[in-house]
């Protein structure tokens, strides 16, 4: 990667719900559970549990500034700085509205709307080159 990509992210509930809904079948499959169709319990979870979790995370972390560089991804937020090296990233998934950078400890959503066309092209190229896409 030539120069770091910097994006500023202010997460939105609707966007977050869509990402969770899209990722849920993958998460269930990875845990050896049935994923299709998403059952009533999981749909209720999306409506009842995810919004308060999102609001708590948004309150705790706030807006984020991400820098994607040769040594990994750094997130700066109200909680301080978090650095994830490329070796700690297990997958980068593409969903309808965002990349989901998956690590051993969690995931970092990176909404497409926060990338310029050039930045997104560079990020997609890097993913393809390093075979981290899932």
Could you please describe the fold and organization of this structure?
40% of the residues lie in helices and 29% in strands. The protein has 4 helices and 7 strands. The strands form 2 sheets. A 4-stranded antiparallel β-sheet has the order 1-2-3-4, with no helix packed on it. A 3-stranded antiparallel β-sheet has the order 5-6-7, covered by helices on one side. Strand 2 (64-69) and strand 3 form a beta hairpin.
Q: How do the helices and strands line up, and which of them pair or pack?
A:
Elements: E1 5-9, H1 13-30, H2 40-48, H3 50-61, E2 64-69, E3 72-77, E4 80-84, E5 89-94, E6 98-103, E7 107-111, H4 117-130
Antiparallel strand pairs: 1-2, 2-3, 3-4, 5-6, 6-7
Helix pairs in contact: 1-3
């Amino acid at each position: 990667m030539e120069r770091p990509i910097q994006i500023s992210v202010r997460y939105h509930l609707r966007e977050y719900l869509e990402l969770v809904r899209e990722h849920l079948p993958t998460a269930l499959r990875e845990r050896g559970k049935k994923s299709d169709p998403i059952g009533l319990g999981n749909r209720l979870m999306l409506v009842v549990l995810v919004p308060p979790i999102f609001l708590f995370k948004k309150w705790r972390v706030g807006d984020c500034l991400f820098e994607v560089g040769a040594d990994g991804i750094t997130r700066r937020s109200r909680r301080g700085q978090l650095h994830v090296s490329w070796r700690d990233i297990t997958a980068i998934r593409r969903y309808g509205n965002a990349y989901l950078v998956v690590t051993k400890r969690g995931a970092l959503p990176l909404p497409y709307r926060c990338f310029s066309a050039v930045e997104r092209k560079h990020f997609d190229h890097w993913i393809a080159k390093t075979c981290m896409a899932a």
